[in-house]
Amino acid sequence: MAVKISAEYINNSKVKLNHCLSGDKIITDLPVDNGGKGSTFSPTDLFASSLASCVLTIMSKVADRNGINFEGAKMEMEKVMADNPRRVDKLLGIINLPDGLNETDKKRLVGCIKACPVHKSLHPDIEVVFKIA
Asked: Which of 15, 53, 56, 62 is buried most deeply by CB count within 10 Å?
């Protein structure tokens, strides 16, 4: 299934993204370390965010299918940039799973990390590390 996203330059390094199917909008800005104000997500912030969102979404789908309580699951994602060339160099994710999971359910959910389509789409030069807290 194809989904269209339109992008429009607004001003001051800001771009408005429109999810054409739902009409939802996101504004991006350049990060401070690249001349922007850092007033909202940068394009590479969205890149890192998409991995976090995808992993938690896949985990929630598996949890629902297996009757696993997934309420309160969280993730922090840290994006590390390289300078030359400027690109995402490393993504560090810390996943907090709900309390009370047995080892089988925990293993099942952790297995979702590499099943995520965003993870599968990342360039092999990007170091990706996940820790379960």
From this structure: 56
* pLDDT tens track for 64-114: 999 999 999 999 999 999 999 999 999 999 999 999 999 999 999 999 998
Please indicate, yes or no, whether residues 60 and 11 belong to a single structural domain of this protein: no
Count structural domains, the chain.
2
- CB-based contact 42:31 (threshold 8 Å): yes
- CA distance to 6, 37, 55, 59, 120, per residue, from 74 (Å): 29, 27, 10, 11, 21
In this structure, are 13 and 55 located in the same domain? Answer: no
Domain that holds residue 32: 1-41
109 & 71 share domain? yes
Give Cβ neighbours of residue 42 (< 8 Å, ≥ 6 apart): 28, 29, 30, 31, 34, 36
Give the span between the Cα atoms of 95 and 133, in whole angstroms. Answer: 6
